[in-house]
Design goal:
The complex is a heterodimer of chains A (296) and B (331).
Chain A lengths: L2 H9 L10 H13 L2 H34 L9 H6 L17 H22 L1 H8 L4 H30 L17 H26 L2 H23 L5 H4 L5 H8 L11 H25 L3
Helix pairs in contact in A: 2-7, 3-5, 3-7, 5-6, 5-7, 5-8, 5-9, 7-8, 8-9, 8-12, 11-12
Chain B lengths: L1 E10 L2 E11 L4 E5 L6 H8 L7 E6 L10 H4 E4 L11 H10 L5 H10 L15 H13 L5 E5 L7 H16 L3 E6 L2 H7 L2 E6 L2 E7 H8 L3 E6 L2 H10 L4 E5 L2 E5 L3 H10 L4 E7 L3 H9 L24 H15 L1
Parallel strand pairs in B: 3-7, 3-8, 5-6, 6-7
Antiparallel strand pairs in B: 1-2, 1-4, 8-9, 10-12, 10-13, 11-12
Classes of the chains: A mainly alpha (296), B alpha/beta (331).
Chain lengths: 296, 331
């Protein structure tokens, strides 16, 4: 902090002359993501939670099949295959869906983390430094989006894989052929990652729009976890029309994307995926416009 | 170089900046002075492209800030010492900011050393004192070795050594031909740092001039006279059409007459004078004089005539109290 320090240090052009590029902003956002202790801790806990809840939920399924086989329904014992087939189709309860058994906790935590990734910058004032360094603004959103998509996709896929590796041997005693080549297993691992990445993008958009962590997380939880309940009540309303509405909710359409096969009266998996993608875009576009137009 | 033309910003019903035009020249330290709420920070945010002007325009080094390919090399800004994530260390914050321009980590280490943050660089920025936060903000502004430096109240919360360091840094960078734009509500600080002053009040520019010219234009030469016979001397002086004020017992302030003439008059009339002191306005007083009608948030705690915005009292002692009150309220 003395004058000589200023003169000697400042004489050297050590700062370089490089300009802002998307890759550099991406690097900056990756550094930001890595350098928060709370984030790293949260990712580890999320991994543990996805696998842990996945195993618990696998245990519930094992118990259900076991009951059907040992005790049976209305005094009538069922075969293992009958029990497995009695899972309602497309409900995410099938055995091929085991990798995603704990996915909901991942959606909750990674979605919230995405809200925080930008809303905490608004809360702390960091956003002003960020927008000074990259005044194009949209590149920052894009870089944050890439970081979140990569992190949530990789974490979900790895956690799903580990869940399946640990859970599938549980069902060996039923003589079921449950492995990586079972229909839908690999599909659900990879689509599970996409689904969580999509939720993270919705979270990032909400954080940008609301500039507020608590508000953004509340809205996200409302959309992903409360709306489905509202949808169930809605389907009880008189008239055929209301029965078809709930499947278009983000969580229902996204959930359908994770399962395989056609089920009458619900969206096909690819259609569910497209509807969910539509929701992601629906949230991202206003967020990008607001970010560009609004005062920081 | 910063060029603003008809810059205006309206928030709802409130006009924060009311169509101001000014130019900040390179090679000089330009002070941006004004009471709280005068529009200083809003103007600086518009320069940095954080807030969009309602109308008018401002360009830095020939372009809008956001149109520069390497904005951090063009303009470094300290707008808000709290523009840092509280849970991230100072070093990591600077590293993330530097990464946007491919500025090497060696430069990050340099600005940390320059600003005296070495000892706390790995600690969370949220735990920093106001002064440390300011130093981090200044380090952030210096990262790109910018051509133009914009500092919003940089000495707020700094220790005397830090204040002097900022002053030296500003003067040094200006001598290197860089554009330095510093806002403050402390005239005394600006008097020692700035070459040129832009004074703003209620969103309008009140003065755009050199430090010397500002004092000259606002100064009111007067003489402090102490005598037991204040009434008589007042009458004698009033005969010459001279303005005289009495603020304390046995003390007069006489405007517009040389001390010699007062002494002669007293001698001729056998009035005993036991003190005769010429007073010149300080820059602080010139500033109060200039902004007294423009202060948005009046402080009435002192109650006396010295409250900013009240009738200006010439007595240096009272003037100082008033300055202290203002600082106390504003910081």
């Amino acid at each position: 902090m003395s004058t000589p320090t200023i003169s000697t240090k400042h004489a050297t052009p050590s700062a370089g002359t490089g300009g802002v590029t998307f890759l550099r902003v991406l690097n900056s956002e990756a550094i930001k993501f890595r350098t928060l202790m709370s984030t790293k801790l949260l990712l580890v806990l999320t991994f543990v939670a996805i696998v842990g809840i996945g195993l618990l939920s696998a245990l519930v399924r094992w118990n259900f099949i076991n009951q059907m086989v040992e005790v049976g329904r209305q005094g009538h014992k069922e075969s293992v295959q009958q029990a497995v087939d009695s899972f309602p189709p497309g409900s995410g309860f099938s055995l091929y869906n085991l990798p995603n058994a704990g996915l909901n906790i991942g959606i909750l935590v990674l979605g919230s983390l995405a809200v925080l990734f930008i809303a905490s910058e608004y809360a702390t004032g960091m956003i002003r430094s960020t927008m000074n360094a990259a005044p194009g603004r949209l590149s920052t959103f894009g870089a944050k989006a890439v970081v979140l998509v990569v992190v949530s996709y990789v974490l979900s896929v790895v956690a799903g894989t580990v869940t399946f590796l640990l859970a599938s041997p549980m069902f060996a005693n039923f003589g079921l052929d449950l492995g990586w080549n079972t229909d839908g297993v690999l599909y659900s691992v990879f689509t599970g990652g996409l689904y969580v990445a999509g939720v993270a993008l919705i979270g990032l958009s909400l954080g940008t729009l609301l500039k507020n962590s608590a508000g953004g997380i509340t809205v996200l939880v409302g959309i992903m976890f409360v709306l489905p309940f509202a949808g169930q009540f809605l389907s009880l309303a008189p008239g055929e029309f209301w029965k078809y509405v709930p499947q278009y909710l983000p969580s229902e359409a996204g959930g359908r994307f994770l399962s395989i096969g056609h089920v009458d009266g619900t969206l096909d998996p690819w259609a569910g995926g497209l509807v969910f993608l539509g929701y992601v875009i629906l949230f991202m576009v206003p967020a990008l416009i607001a970010l560009k137009k609004r005062d920081v | 170089m910063i060029e603003a033309t008809g810059l205006r910003k309206v928030y709802g019903a409130k006009t924060a900046v009311d169509g101001i035009s000014f130019t900040v020249q390179p090679g000089k330290v330009t002070g941006f002075l004004g009471p709280n709420g005068a529009g200083k920070s809003t103007t600086m945010r518009m320069i940095m492209g954080l807030d969009r002007p309602t109308s008018g325009d401002v360009i830095v080094n020939g372009r809008h800030y956001s149109q520069h390919k390497a904005p951090l090399h063009q303009v470094g800004a300290l707008l808000d010492a709290k523009a840092v994530h509280t849970s991230r260390s100072a070093y990591n914050h600077l590293r993330a900011m530097a990464a946007t321009h491919g500025i090497p980590n060696s430069r990050v280490a340099e600005v940390i050393e320059m600003t005296g943050l070495t000892a706390v660089a790995k600690k969370k920025a949220g735990g920093f004192s106001l002064g440390m936060g300011q130093r981090l903000g200044i380090a952030n502004a210096l990262l790109g070795d910018p051509q133009t430096l914009i500092l919003d109240e940089p000495v707020n919360g700094l220790d005397p050594e830090g204040v002097q360091w900022v002053r030296n840094l500003a003067r040094y960078l200006a001598s290197q031909g860089k554009t330095i734009f510093i806002s403050s509500h402390l005239m005394s600080e600006m008097a020692q740092t700035a070459d040129h002053l832009i004074v703003i009040g209620r969103g309008r520019i009140i003065a755009d001039t050199t430090v010397e010219a500002l004092i000259e234009s606002q100064s009111r030469k007067r003489t402090l006279v102490r005598t037991a016979e204040t009434t008589r001397l007042s009458e004698l002086l009033a005969r010459d059409g001279v303005r005289v004020e009495q603020n304390e017992r046995e003390t007069l302030e006489v405007y517009g007459v040389e001390p010699l003439r007062i002494a002669e008059l007293a001698l001729d009339n056998r009035v005993l004078v036991y003190e005769l002191t010429p007073l010149t306005s300080s820059l602080e007083e010139a500033y109060f004089q200039l902004t007294k009608d423009e202060v948005e948030y009046h402080s009435h705690i002192t109650g006396g005539p010295a409250a900013p915005g009240g009738p200006l009292n010439g007595s240096p002692a009272v003037g100082a109290t008033s300055a202290a009150t203002m600082e106390g309220i504003q910081s």
